[in-house]
Specification:
Elements: H1 23-41, H2 56-59, E1 65-68, H3 70-77, E2 83-88, H4 93-104, H5 109-112, E3 117-118, H6 122-127, E4 136-137, E5 141-143, E6 155-160, E7 163-169, E8 171-174, E9 183-186, H7 189-194, E10 204-206, E11 211-213, H8 219-225, E12 227-228, H9 234-240, H10 243-255, E13 258-259, H11 261-267, H12 270-278, H13 282-293, H14 298-307, H15 311-314, H16 333-346, H17 349-354, H18 358-370, H19 392-400, H20 405-433, H21 447-457, H22 461-475, H23 480-496, H24 511-518, H25 525-534, H26 568-571, H27 582-591, H28 598-614, H29 618-633, H30 637-643, H31 646-653, H32 666-687, H33 703-723, H34 730-747, H35 755-767, H36 775-791, H37 800-813, H38 821-837, H39 840-856
Parallel strand pairs: 2-7, 3-4, 12-13
Antiparallel strand pairs: 1-2, 1-10, 5-6, 6-7, 8-9, 10-11
Helix pairs in contact: 1-4, 10-13, 10-14, 14-16, 16-18, 16-22, 18-20, 18-22, 19-20, 20-22, 20-23, 22-23, 28-29, 29-32, 31-32, 32-33, 32-34, 33-34, 34-36, 35-36, 35-37, 36-38, 37-38, 38-39
Length: 865
């Protein structure tokens, strides 16, 4: 098959079949061609050793050189590349390298290319050719083939003019019946191209003709389509070298390309995954993973690992038997890597302070990869005289991907310190969020407490905090934004106390000085003594001065009146017999507030309402949420904005959404959730009011309100329904489908993004036999379906099939059953609403579908009339 030149491809391909080389690349090309001409003219040099036999038909051909693979691809994309693979038609890479060395040893030849010397030993070779200014040529390094580890090809490397050169012969692979390892033979350019991992990596640049060549006839086309596919059948390509699965993941994430569906399917094959785990050296796996995680889109690389079910294949210790291997918890890992991607890409306090450079960002992705091992039990220590074995996650990165000691140390410290870090962050956030509340123990916001903690965590404390945040996200997947907000507060406090670089501050006293001062030998006692002496905070204010530098004018409350008392009836009088009337008074006050007087009593009513919401008993939480809803309806938006309590109210209400049945008794859960749904919706309007003056053409709510409502809609409605709608009790379904339309109406047209999730859930409720089928459940679900249509009508045409499926399924389900008359009337109304908002073409299609359904099943008659 003749090669296809670049110019023969589609209109959006480069118009020329030549490439523009840099000056350094031009020099290298000239050198390589001169060497090949020298060999052609002086072929009598004794052959060097090689296990690859030269076919007779190639013996008399002249040498032809080609740049191959990634360098050609990057050149076509306009991306600089310092790695060049050189393919030789009739010599092995080592043979050609030796002849090139002999050529450069001829007096005067080095100077032709601006060079001065050849590296004489390994020490010189390490520095030789590292930049384009280097005048020394690096030595040859032969990398032997290792078929047992799917390393089929012998290569020879060298460095020259800042370029890393790989010399290799054009090859083909042949298999025999009695061996799974191929025999390498000299091949044609076409045979060589077809054995490569991807079509976009299989194009050549012919140094002799100065033209690009595409022997697969797909390389340039796939580049134009931004698609990754294999030259041959994907399963066989991966079977020959399973590492190609990881290589294609890396290329897809680096180039922003999509992997072809057939290729993805082959990568999911259990045989390929097992071969990748057992056959490929873990060093090669680690190299590919590191390249992917340091590339432009590590999130996409890990997403593909997750999507292809390769997590345990890659992140495991192959030396551990399957029966003894801990199964990592990958449930929710997609949410973890999504959250990390958002944090790093969107910037902000966390990214700016915890992932400041490429190394810390790489650590963050490696730590994210280890989150599924967060609950792995610690290995048993069998020898008390030796150090305890490291956590499972550390063993996985050491043995599974052969990570560096630096990476292993970061992961070890992160796993070890995660409980302390998350605990300190929680305590600090609670104190910041509720300054009116008293807390036991040390002050987590204090400079000495935070500073000494960071010292204990060590130099990589920033990465460790990232890991603690990711672990918390994995354990609380519906609270991503709240968790990020909490860790942002922690970092802001660290920065405000000038502790970001505390690890570099020299201690006031070291061990030698302490031992000398008191005349005592060093010992275990010294650590505690040094911690105490070095924890003195020179910037702390005396007890008589406030943090703002003002004189303290109020004395501490007596113990009896302090919030620190253990008698709950003093801080929550409604729980005592003498104060039972207090809730009635609080209700009376809140119900009679208006916008004119609310600011005056604001400091008096907020603490008891928040205390009620924070109570562990659902009945008190319900009262608190109801009172807050009533209070917010009288609250002017400027007052809420000025006091900054909007976020506090949000953080207080969100945990109430977790009190769902069956974990919470139904008679307690329904009132609490109902009050919470109402309060959150009211909070959305007061906290994020419409702009003034409001445009008459505005059809979308303010963006902050939209983001807030999106979050509530997902956590309060979509998540419970998605878990198991058929297992939810009817009262809970009725509650959800009563309030969900209110949130959809509040979002308006912005609700369209949720259609793809809500409509299938509604279809399940309306049609599945296992779902509750009470008239009230079906009527409310249908009302929600109508709300979806009313608010998302511009996009409903794309989902008309799902709507028809839901309506017809419910119509047939309710056929002939008593008490369903109202439901069936509602379903007819849904069809009428759908037809009314559709474009003419879609409308006609729906009516035609209705006629066809009636012809197939007479029970459908009457629905589309």
């Amino acid at each position: 098959m003749a090669p296809m030149l670049v110019q023969e491809v589609e209109d959006d391909a480069p118009s020329s079949n030549t490439l523009e080389l840099t000056p350094v690349e031009q020099t290298l090309t000239r050198l390589l061609l001169d060497v090949s001409h020298h060999i052609d003219e002086h072929p009598s040099t004794p052959q060097t050793e090689s296990h690859v036999e030269l076919p007779a038909e190639l013996a008399n051909e002249k040498i032809v050189l080609r740049y191959t693979g990634g360098w050609v691809r990057d050149k076509l994309l306009g991306v600089p590349s310092h790695d060049i693979d050189v393919a030789i038609n009739k010599m092995t890479g080592f043979q050609f390298g030796l002849r090139m060395k002999q050529y450069l040893e001829i007096p005067g030849n080095l100077e032709k290319y601006g060079l001065e010397s050849l590296a004489a030993n390994d020490k010189q070779s390490l520095k030789a050719g590292t930049t384009d200014k280097s005048k020394t040529v690096g030595g040859l390094h032969k990398i032997e083939a290792n078929p047992e580890k799917s390393k089929h090809l012998e290569t020879t490397t060298m460095r020259i003019l800042g370029l890393d050169i790989d010399l290799v012969n054009l090859r083909k692979e042949t298999y025999t019946d009695d061996s799974r390892n191929p025999e390498m033979e000299f091949g044609t350019p076409e045979e060589d191209a077809l054995r490569r991992d991807a079509t976009v990596n299989a194009m050549f640049y012919n140094l002799n003709t100065k033209e690009t060549e595409d022997f697969t006839r797909r390389g340039h086309k796939d580049m134009a389509r931004k698609v990754i596919c294999t030259p041959l059948e994907p399963y066989q390509t991966f079977k020959d070298d399973p590492l190609r699965v990881l290589r294609l993941i890396r290329f897809a994430s680096r180039l922003g390309y999509t992997i072809e569906a057939e290729v993805l399917e082959a990568a999911r094959n259990p045989d390929i995954k097992e071969a990748l785990r057992r056959k490929i050296s873990r060093e090669r796996v680690g190299v590919e993973l590191e390249k992917a995680l340091t590339g432009p889109d590590p999130h996409e690389a890990l997403r593909l690992v997750f999507d292809l079910d390769l997590y345990e294949t890659i992140f495991s210790d192959p030396a551990v038997a399957d029966v003894d291997h801990y199964s990592p918890d990958v449930d929710g890992w997609q949410i973890v890597i999504d959250a990390l991607s958002d944090v790093l890409n969107n910037g902000g306090t966390i990214a700016d302070n915890l992932a400041r450079d490429k190394e810390e960002q790489y650590f963050a992705w490696q730590l994210a990869a280890m989150v599924p091992y967060r609950d792995a039990p610690n290995p048993v220590q069998t020898d008390p005289n030796r150090k305890p074995p490291p956590p499972v996650a550390v063993t996985v990165v050491k043995e599974g991907i052969k990570a560096t000691n630096r990476v292993s140390d970061v992961i070890h410290a992160s796993v070890r310190n995660e409980p302390e870090i998350s605990g300190l962050v929680d305590k600090l956030y609670d104190r910041k969020r509720r300054p009116d509340k008293s807390f036991d123990g040390e002050d987590a916001t204090a400079r000495d407490v935070i500073g000494m903690a960071i010292r204990r965590w060590g130099a990589t404390w920033r990465s460790q905090v990232v890991y603690a945040m990711l672990v918390e996200i994995a354990n609380n997947q519906v609270q991503v934004e709240a968790i990020e907000r909490k860790y942002t507060t922690f970092i802001e406090q660290v920065a405000s106390l000038s502790l970001l670089d505390v690890i570099s501050i020299k201690p006031l006293l070291d061990g030698k000085a302490l031992a000398k001062a008191i005349g005592a030998p060093p010992g275990p006692w010294m650590k505690d003594a040094l911690d105490r002496s070095n924890s003195t905070d020179p910037m702390a204010s005396p007890s008589s001065v406030t943090e703002a530098g003002r004189k303290v004018t109020t004395a501490a409350l007596p113990q009896k009146l302090s919030l620190q008392t253990e008698d709950e009836t003093l801080t929550k009088p409604w729980k005592g017999t003498k104060g039972a009337f207090s809730l009635d008074i609080l209700r009376w006050v809140v119900n009679r507030l208006d916008s004119k007087i609310i600011a005056e009593v604001w400091p008096l009513v907020i603490p008891p309402i928040l205390t009620l919401i924070d109570d562990h008993q659902p009945q008190y939480k319900t009262i608190g949420a109801s009172l807050l809803d009533c209070l917010l309806k009288s609250t002017p938006p400027p007052l809420l904005s000025r006091t900054g309590l909007g976020e506090v109210f949000e953080d207080a209400l969100l945990p109430c959404l977790t009190f769902t049945p069956p974990l919470t008794p139904i008679d307690e859960a329904i009132p609490l959730l109902q009050a919470t749904y109402r309060a959150l919706l009211t909070l959305a309007y007061v906290r994020f009011p419409d702009p003034q003056p409001q445009s008459t053409t505005t059809i979308l709510p303010p963006l902050p309100r939209t983001n807030f409502l999106d979050k509530i809609l997902r956590s309060a409605f979509i998540t419970p329904l998605a878990h198991s709608p058929s297992a939810l009790p009817p009262p809970f379904l009725i509650l959800i489908y009563t309030h969900l339309p209110l949130y959809l109406s509040a979002l308006g047209l912005a609700s369209v993004k949720h259609m793809q999730y809500i409509l299938p859930l509604l279809t399940s409720t309306l049609t599945r036999p296992a779902s509750p089928a009470t008239p009230e459940v079906l009527a409310n679900a249908n009302a929600t379906l109508q709300a979806v249509i009313r608010n998302g009508w511009p996009r409903i045409g794309g989902y008309k099939g799902e709507v028809i499926k839901a309506v017809v399924g419910c119509w047939v389900r309710s056929y002939g059953k008593e008490g369903m008359e109202g439901v069936r009337e509602g379903l007819k109304g849904t069809v009428g609403l759908l037809v009314g908002v559709l474009e003419e073409g879609d409308k006609a299609e729906v009516l035609k579908t209705g006629q066809e359904l009636v012809a197939v099943d007479g029970r459908v008659k009457g629905l589309f009339e």
